[in-house]
Specification:
This protein is an all-beta fold. It has strands spanning 10-12, 17-21, 26-29, 31-33, 41-45, 52-54, 59-62, 73-81, 86-96, 103-106, 110-114, 119-122, 124-126, 134-138, 145-147, 152-155, 166-174, 179-189. The chain contains no helices and 18 strands. It is rod-shaped, with a radius of gyration of 28 Å. The termini are far apart.
């Protein structure tokens, strides 16, 4: 017996523009109705659709957490189809910038220097939002170290293997609000 399809499915449950916080994966859930009660299939299209997914319940989410500094908005089409018709709606997803802590790039946690040396390492760090960085030290052996405004870490006195062959110091990098810390273990090589 043939049946007459009385109309296309309709999309609902979301605006044409949504805002999500940076690093948030869940975007929005679309819902749809079909005048015939047909089973519906959701899909996404458009250039930015490759960065997102939609499940059978209509939940749209990013495949990887969005990064405002990489891409501040995404334009996609949300589609819903029954056996005969496809309905689509444009969706603009705006990513809201969120203050993130600085990132310490180098050095690695384990370092070595030769005896009688004072220079330890240049701390390389960046702030995702481009804020100025403030370097500081903490930890067990921190009084034995100093760090410059540009991140040059050094011992206050020359390393002496016979007195201390191992140092522990935490390097803290702040953007004025958030702090990243790298625990350093400094091994002194005997000459």
């Amino acid at each position: 017996e043939s049946r007459i399809n009385v109309g296309a499915p309709t999309l609902e449950g979301f605006e044409s523009e949504v805002i999500v916080d940076e690093n948030q994966v869940q975007v929005v859930t679309a819902s749809a109705k079909d005048p015939n009660g047909d089973d519906l299939v959701f899909s996404l299209s458009g250039n930015d659709a490759k960065s997102l997914t939609i499940n059978k319940e209509g939940a749209i989410s990013f495949l990887r957490p969005p990064d405002y500094e990489q891409q501040p908005d995404y334009k996609i089409k949300v589609l819903v189809a029954d056996e005969e018709y496809i309905t689509s709606q444009d969706l603009l997803i705006k990513v809201r910038d969120v203050d993130e802590p600085p990132i310490i790039i180098s050095p690695a946690s384990l370092l070595s220097i030769t005896e009688n040396q004072t220079d330890v390492a240049k701390i390389q760090a960046l702030d995702p939002e481009g804020a100025s960085l403030i370097f500081s030290l903490s930890g067990v052996d921190s009084p034995l170290f100093q760090i410059t405004e540009s991140g040059e870490l050094s011992l206050r006195a020359s390393a002496d293997f016979e007195k201390n062959s191992n140092y522990y110091v935490d390097v803290n990098v702040s953007d004025g609000r958030l702090i990243a810390t790298r625990e350093l273990n400094l091994l002194v090589e005997d000459l």
